[in-house]
Amino acid sequence: MRVLLADDHELVAQTIAAYLRAEMRCDVSVAHSLGSAVEDVKANGTYDLVLLDLEMPGMNYLDGLEEMIAVNGGRPVAILSGTSSRMLAQEAISRGAAGFLSKSMAPVSMISALRLMNMGETFYPFKTLVDDEEDAAASALTRRELQVLNGICAGKSNKEIARDHELQEVTVKLHVKTLSRKLGARNRTHAAMIARDRLLC
Hints:
The protein has helices at residues 10-24, 34-44, 63-71, 86-94, 107-118, 126-131, 136-139, 143-153, 158-164, 169-183, 188-197, and strands spanning 2-6, 27-31, 49-53, 77-81, 99-102. It is of the alpha/beta class. It has 2 domains: 2-127, Rossmann fold (3-Layer(aba) Sandwich); 143-197, Winged helix-like DNA-binding domain superfamily/Winged helix DNA-binding domain (Arc Repressor Mutant, subunit A), CATH 1.10.10.
């Protein structure tokens, strides 16, 4: 797995890079600005995953995210941030981010998040944003689970959700079970209430 880590705080960047190399056997390149990250991709080809520090030079808020997504050929690009803001995370995801990672998250949670994004899923750590500190493996909803959750919020039955997304009804039932567990919901109605409170649908 080739990863490009762009962060202008050299110590932070090198620490994260060293951990990814040791724990995931990643081929990690490091850049310290959006400009240098873009040049790296142009010179060395696209990466399996790009991690962008939100506050580094050249980012211009989330405009840098969209630029990197284009340069990286649409392959996963995620935001790293020292700010655990739910609204910021939602905007990043809506603008194409593969995930939103807090720099304060536990290393094992970061590994879980990277693996999830490398499989093509979107990492949205809503529990981290709401409750400050939760394990990514337990808190992340997959893209498919979010689709099912949106269907639940719209009052659709499992059969209707299955038809909308070309799934088997039994598959939808499984997603309902797993997303309810992740949300800490007692049932689908409770899941919809939690989702609305957290602006997930």
